[in-house]
Amino acid sequence: MTPERFSECLETIGWTQRGLAARLEIDEHQTRRWASGRYPVPGPVAHWLERLTRAIERNPAPDITVA
Question: For the domain that residue 42 is a member of, what is the CATH number?
Fold first, then answer.
């Protein structure tokens, strides 16, 4: 997973790097390293983020705009 794709996935899911770190119960510095490309996103995390991203893309939030 490239740093760009990592950021795209987080944006689609609606999470920040801090939010992902909290969800994974890891130090936020680690997610920053993934985002910068200093360290690769671990395979299981990358696959999980891709699955979440696809699920959200297939099931967008409903439009509840009142006319």
Answer: 1.10.260
